[in-house]
Structures are given as C-alpha cells and as structure tokens.
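Form 7-S
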Amino acid sequence: MPKHKIVSETTHTDCTIIPIFEEEQLAPQVSVMSEKIHENVVSLFASKDFEGKHLQQSFVYNQHDVSPRTLLIGLGKKEDCTIEKWKKVVGSATIAAQNKKCKKIKLVIPQYIIDLFGIENTAQEGVIAAHTAAYSFDQHKEEGDRTTTIDTIFWYLDSSKTDAWEAGLASGIHIAESVNFARHLGNTPPSEMTPESLANAAKDLGKEYTTLTVNVLEKEKIKELGMGCLLGVSQGSILQPKFIIIEYLHGKQEERPMVFVGKGITFDSGGLSLKPDPYIRDMKFDMLGAATVLGILRAAAALGLKQNIVGLVPTCENMPSGSSYRPDDILRAMNGKTVLIQNTDAEGRLILADALSYASQYKPKHVVDFATLTGACVVALGNERSGLFTKDDNTAIALQKAAEKTGEKLWRLPLGEEYSEAMKCEVADLKNIGGVGGARYAGASTAAAFLEYFTDYPWTHIDLSCSSYGEKGKSWIRGGANGFGVQTIISYLKNNA
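Output:
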C-alpha cells in the first residue's frame, strides 16, 4: 500500500494532479504550477481542449519542472459535486498516473472540497478512492506486464488542520485495505479460493487482529447442528463445506450484537441445473457476500470500533456429480423447515437459510445478509446499485444514507405477503424458487421472502448481484470484485453505534 505525506510546499514527484471545477478555471491552483506549466494550461483552457468537465483529463509536460508531468482532471460543476463524484476523480487520476508508470504522485486538494465534505471526511474518502484505484489483481501476469506500484501519495492542502487530515488518512487506510482484502478474496481463482482457503483467510484475520475470535465448523459439526441445506448444496463437490464464525465483541457486555451473514459459494456451476455458457463464467464471484462480511470484520477490528459484531459465513462449492443434490429433493434447514428443490442453481438462499437460522442464538440487534443472490435483481436495477430488502423503514433509511456518504448505492425493493406466499409448497414447507404472476416474475423479492422464513429477529437482505463486480474496469477502478458493502456498513456502524 502507498505511503502518505501531507505537503504544503514544492515536492518532487512523478506527477502532480490538479482537480479543477468546470467554472473555476485556474485561480486557486496557480500557486502549485510553474510558470511554464501555467502557460500551457492557460492555452488548454483557451483552446477548450480542457474545460474541467467531470473526469475530463489532460496531461501537461515539462521535464524541467519539479513534476515532469501535471495531470488536470475535471471536477465538473460545483453544484453537482458529491462524495461519489469526488472519489471518482481521485480514483481516475490515480489510475491515469499509474498508467504513466508514476510511483510518486501529488494530489492537490481544492479548498471547496474540504469546505463541502469536512477535512477529515475528505481525507478518509480520498485515500479510500486512491487505494481502491491503485489495487490490481495481476500476480498471475508476467512481472513486466504488472501494474506500476505507487509507493507514495503526497497530499497538498492549504490548511493548518493537519491533525484532522492525518486522522482521516488513518481511518481511510484501514477501510481501504479492508475493501481491497475483500476484493482480493473475490478475484482469486476458484481453484485457489476454495471453502478451506476462505476459512483459512478468516483464521489468518484472527491471527492478525487478536480482537477477532474465529471458529470454523467442519462437516461433522455442520451435520450435528442440522444444517441440511448447506450439506445438500455441498454434496456434489469433492471439497468439504465450512461454516465460519467470526466474533468481535468490544461493545458493552449487555449489548446485543449486529450480525452479518455472507453467502460463500466459492464456485457455482449451477449443480445439476447446470449454468450455460457464458453464465458459468465469473462464478468465482459467487462468494462476494462472504468477502464483504470478512472485510467488514477486518475493518471493525482495525478501526477498534466499540461494538459487538458477529460474522457468519456458510461456504461450499455447488458442483454437478453423481452425488449432487437433485431437483425434487427435499432438504431440512437448521430451524426445521423443509425445502423442495426445484432448481439446484437457486443454492445461495439454501446455505443462507442455515446461517440465518444459526444467527438466532445471538439474539441479535439486527442481522444483515449479503449475497450475490439473483439475476432478477440485475434485471431490475442494472449494475450500479445493490438491492435492499427490509421491513424496517428506519434501517432502510439509515443504510441508504450510509451508502450515500461513501459513494455506494442501495435501492430498496419490496417484501410482502404476495412474495412470501409464492415460496410456499404442497409437499414441503417451502420451495427454493417461485414467482408472482409467473414463474420468472419478481425473482429478487421472492428470493428475499424465502430468506425471511429463517429469521425471527430484525433483518435486512442486500442482493449484491448488481454491483459487486465488473468484467471490465472503469476509469476509477479496475475490473473484478469491487468490495461493495464494506464502506457502507462501516459508515452505518459509526453512525448507529
């Protein structure tokens, strides 16, 4: 990870990054430019080759300057500025500098951004944007083709409140490292990121942060607890299922914990209901709910939050074989409910059923589960927002506000009687797929309604299928897993302690 330094004077770097508002032109930034660079920039504005539009970029070169290259990047209009747009500017500039093989970069912070978001929050969100942009999953490439590593980021700001900036940097680094940790778990090939590997990653967290207590349940214990759905999904694979429990209990002793549950299907072939090409590709990402939960617990420990938090991760593969579970099988979940299997590719809700049942023993304050659960959610929302399901209006509002503060996006979708009724079955308590008005209608809401049958506490479901990864990167983040949800939940925990 890059080192960070606050500077208010001339510093030799490979690239100086100057964000400029569309209507602001050059006045606030003149002091950080040499005379030659300033002349070139004035020419760019005069020719309208650069106008400060959001994410517009232009490099200016002067080999004899303290920075041989200056990157101008547009902030857009002041009235349109949000934390999401600011983070995209920082991320895009970081990647643009990396692509020029820069190892030391200097980022000029406009005073308006500090005034708008506060100095500590500007620092925190800025460093998160820079670190997540700088991350690249490229260790399987030849060394010469790997992304340039940024070793130092200099932050240039005209403020005496350096203590507040340092505090924001410190918390931002912890959050960013946890986001990238979650991304790295998700990006790892499924031959390497097996249920055992995921369990080992959790154990390693427990060694790194002694405030985390990690316990991994093996197949025999899973069977003893009556987790028939997790066992059923896993039985087609030669790899054994695991049930990961991470406890971070640093709030008041009497305080009921927040519990986070993550779907950990390390590869989803669809089972006997085999996915066709190209839908079977990228199924290493079907454990991103689990990665999010591990990232949340890592961040909580690194930040030293004074709260009681539990993470639960059921993990296995969903594979076709002679021992696979079948359509028409009936599985029994830990809470005793039986489930008719109509499609073995609706497996994530099954392993979550056992995890949500297990969560009851904590008498939780609230449970939030994360899962790449349904293609129907992608159809409804596209790939920029994740689906939010809860019957608690206050929780929905709080989570949406927390997401907005970090630049992530949640969109509330409905739960209700019609969705719950659609999951009932004649030969078992429930079936694992259902629709309202048609077999393929309202799939995101019926999947959420299925999960609700395994809860007896305040509960929220977040469907990550929409926005947890991208095959192609964007200007501010590279392709692959993006760690969605870690930032939102840390923001939520900080504001709802």
